[in-house]
Structures
1.
Amino acid sequence: MNLENFKKECQRIEEDAICSSKGHYNDSSLWLKIHYAIGLPMVVLSAWAGFDIFAKNSEYAGYLTLIITVLASLQTFIKADDKSIQHKNSADELNYLKNKVRRLREIKTEIFAEEKLVKELDTLADKYSQITRVSQPISGRAFRKATKGIKEGQSEYLADN
């Protein structure tokens, strides 16, 4: 086995995992903002409608209830909180995988036999494929933001410089 080729393949998996995890973190953040953008007005308007009902101002309460119904339906339909959690979980798994591959490349190549290295790399590559296969797709916006951040050094460790 050529050790340099082995390390390059590890770096490819690391790079894919970094880009994918950053994209998932970006999408998680977006969906969480959408969740709050729908949920917070719904809470405020619900309180206002309740106040208007007790104040015998049923005209406004009816309009507020209609708006609340639209917001609640929208929140139920798009499930922004679920999407945020799914993207964060995918990002966490990919980040964990990236760290395992990095340790394999940086540390274990010094102590493991070739056969064990190849077997572990195959396992980690399969795990990457499995994670990406079941994950929500990353939006183009999140992917562009992730690649921009990576180019700006957001994924580098001080120890590597």
2.
Amino acid sequence: MHEPPLIVVVDDDREFLKIMVAVLRLHHYRALPHLGEEGAVDLIVSEAPSLVIVDMLMEHTESGRRIIRELQKSSATAQIPTVVCSGENRAGEKVANLNVAHYVHLKKPFQPNELLIVIERLLKR
């Protein structure tokens, strides 16, 4: 039997994580939430998800950027599709400057169906 894709969600907002996990599981994805920056890269490396959703602005303004930068350093994680979430308009530019291969920026707040469309598109690549 085919196992659904695993998606790791990294954010510092507990409510956002709960909502994201509920939406993803409702649509038959396996969702693994992680609160905050600390330990996020280790979790992603160990779990090898199909996709990562990361908030750009968490405890520190560079939190999301640091996570993405670390993921880009390893061939094992550099090709993982990434959805970058942020309330900041320029977050997409910051990620583009990191030369991330497969990413989409979603500005918060966004509708669940917007996220699901982006996930489907990234997973088909």
